[in-house]
Amino acid sequence: MLSVLTAFEIGRISINKIPHHPREVVNKPPIRVPLFVPPSKVRHRRRFVFSFDDPLVLQPLRKRERLDFVLKGTRGDLEVFQRLMKWVRAQWSPSRPDPYPPINALIILDKIRKGETGGFCAQYCFVLCQALQSLGYKARYVTIKGHEVIEAWSPKYNKWIMLDPMYEAFVEKNGIPLSVIEMHDFLFTAQDLTIHANRPLPNKKRYLSRFKNFAIWIKNDHVSSPINFSDIERYKVYFLNTLEERLYIPPESLFTFFREDLYFNPYEG
């Protein structure tokens, strides 16, 4: 069997031997390519596989931290999200995570409570994401400019919702909580967004500008399938606005221009 490289070389040599007739090619009308399916009827499938921890794996976190008690009396997804953000943020004051703890909520909480390390935005996100997953929610990590947030899938709103546990914040437009990509889109239309935050935020405009560029983590199962932090970059997918932005992300990184690759119902195939 020919290797790909050998086949390519044979094909290249064969093509070079074919006589070209530029005038004949120019004079021919272009090939017509009709739309076989109306664009509105096309359903694109995402090109990346996302992984999440099974709630059963995270039951020790749910039971030890008494998350059901924490959420007692909540009604609806958004109230659950807000209550959990408040609980996570109250576990410690922001500090330097040195040494950097593994992406495991139980270990993060243990080490910070013992004074063996600290935690900032990323550690708040790791604990919040795994707490949500322990309750059966799909939640995933999102890297924005100089900051980390998460998105949780809301069955009520049938969409992803951005949550920022560092500031106990979410953002809405006309009473609807927004995903990261929706915030990104509104930045280009200069529309006013409402930020709900229980902790002091930096300048509103500067905070929202962080969402111009972002990367979604496709790996969100760090308890059942742990990896080293140095491996994280290979599991991020950057959403790019232009091809030139490719120059500003790590060279080995995945990227896409298609929102269908990143925004989908995680309960559907």
Could you characterize what this model shows?
By secondary structure, the chain is α+β, with helices and mostly antiparallel strands. The protein has one domain. The protein has nine helices and eleven strands. It has helices at 4-17, 22-27, 59-64, 67-70, 77-89, 105-113, 121-134, 180-187, 204-209; strands at residues 51-52, 139-144, 147-154, 159-163, 169-173, 176-177, 194-197, 214-217, 219-220, 236-239, 254-256. A six-stranded mixed beta sheet has the order 4-3-2-8-10-11, with helices on one face. Strands 6-5-7 form a three-stranded antiparallel beta sheet. Strands 1-9 form a two-stranded parallel sheet. β2 and β3 (147-154) form a beta hairpin. α5 (77-89) crosses α7 and α6 (105-113) crosses α7. The radius of gyration is 23 Å and the shape is globular. It starts with a helix and ends in a 13-residue tail after the last strand. Residues 1-16 have low confidence and may be disordered.
Salient structural properties:
single chain; 269 residues; alpha+beta; six-stranded mixed sheet; three-stranded antiparallel sheet; 11 strands; globular; disordered N terminus
